[in-house]
Amino acid sequence: MSSSMEKLAVLFADICGSTALYDNLGDDLARRLIARCIATMVNEIPAHQGTLVKTIGDEIMCTFPSAEAALNAACAMQRAVEHGRLEEGARMHIRIGFHYGDAIREAGDVFGDTVNVAARVAAITRASQIMATRAVVDALPPDSRDKMRQIMRAEFKGKQEQFDIFLVVWEMDDMMSTRIGTPEFRKSPENNDELSLRYRNQEIRIGKDRRTAVMGRGEICDIVVQNNFASRQHARIELRFGKFVLVDQSTNGTYTRSSDGNVARIAREEMILQGSGSISMGRPYTENPVDLIEFAITSTRARNK
Predict the structure, then answer these.
(1) Higher local confidence (pLDDT), 160 or 280
(2) Alpha helices (H) in 165-256, listed in sequence order
(3) At what angle do helices 27-43 and 67-82 cross, to 10 degrees?
(4) Largest CB tally within 10 Å, which of 18, 218, 249, 263?
(5) Beta bridge partners of residue 196, listed in sequence order
(6) Which pLDDT score is estimated for 21?
C-alpha cells in the first residue's frame, strides 16, 4: 500500500449542538437538518481544490493543497451554513479549525501530526468561528493575512510547544473585530496567579507557563471526564489578560459553584472564575452530580512563601 508525504492544510468542520437538535426537534428532522448541513459544507470543498477525507458523525475532515485554499473554503462553508434556509426555526452553526504542514496520505485517509493539531484547534473553537495556527498564517499571501487575528496561545495534550491560535474574521462587515479586541497577542498582567484543576487523578495548573486547558469526554482533552452528560470538548479555561475565563462550548451547558455556594450556568457563553469552587459538566447541582472538577486560584507568590 503506497503512501506519500505532502504539505497539506487539514481542516475539521463540526456541527455545533447536534445532540440538542435531536432532543428538541426529534430524530427525523434533526437527522435531515444535520445531513443537509454536512452536504452544504461538502459542496464548498471542490471549488477550492479540496478533498473530502471522511465524515465522522456530525463532523467532516478535508484537505486542501494550500493554506489559502483552506481559508477560502472555511469562509465559504461558514457563509453557506449561516445563510442557509431555516426549517422549523432551527438555525445551524458550525465551527472550523485547521492547520498546515506535512501529512501522510494513504489509502484515501490522511495521518500525522498536522491532522492531530488541526483536530485540537477545532476542539477549542466555538460556534460560528474559524480558528487556525501560525503555520497557516505564515503560509498565506499577505492580503489574506488581514483576516487573521491572534487571540490566544494554546497548549495541546502531548505537545511540548505552545501554538499561537488565530481567529479568522470571515465576515468583514460584522462587529467581530470589535468583539475580539486587539489583534496582537498581549501577555497577561504579571499577577502570577495560577488556577489548579483537579478531577479524579488528573491535575492541571493554568498560569503564565500554561495558558489554556480543554475539558470534556474526548480523549484529546487535557482533562478527560467520565460523564455522559459532557460533550466531547465541553469547555475550556483560558488565562486572558490576567483573568481565568471559563468558556462553554457544549450541548448541555456548564455549571459552577463557588466556595460561598453561589451557582451559575453558562451555555455557549463565558464567565470569569474567581476564588475556588467546582465545575459540573452538563448536570445541575440539584441533581447531585458526582463527576465534579475542582478549581482553585492561588497566587504563586503566596504559595512560594
Answers:
(1) 280
(2) 176-180
(3) 140
(4) 249
(5) 205, 296
(6) 76
3-class SS at 74? helix
Distance (Å, rounded) from C-alpha 119 to C-alpha 15?
A: 14
pLDDT, residue 289, reads 85
Average pLDDT, integer, range 48-60: 92
- The closest alpha carbon to 93, from 55, 141, 37, belongs to 37
Contacts made by residues 201-207, CB under 8 angstroms, sequence distance 24+:
206/237, 206/238, 206/239, 206/244, 207/239, 207/300
Residues 213/197, Cβ–Cβ less than 8 Å: yes
> How far is the C-alpha of 87 from the C-alpha of 17, rounded, in Å?
16
85 — pLDDT class (breaks 50, 70, 90): low
In this predicted structure, what is the pLDDT of residue 261?
Answer: 85
Judge residue 257's burial from the number of C-beta atoms within 10 Å of its C-beta, 0-12 exposed, 13-18 middle, 19 or more buried: middle
Could you give the domains of the chain?
3-180 (3.30.70.1230), 193-304 (2.60.200.20)
Q: List the beta strands (DSSP E) in 86-183.
A: 94-106, 109-111, 130-133, 148-155, 162-168
Angle at 199 between CA 59 and CA 197, to 5 degrees: 90
Taking all residues of the chain, what is their mean pLDDT, rounded to a whole number? 84
Work out the number of other CB atoms within 10 angstroms of the CB of residue 198: 15
The whole-angstrom separation of Cα 186 and Cα 304 is 26
In the chain, the percentage of residues whose pLDDT exceeds 90 is 42
Q: 120 with 140: CB under 8 angstroms?
A: no
CB 207 within 8 A of CB 199: no
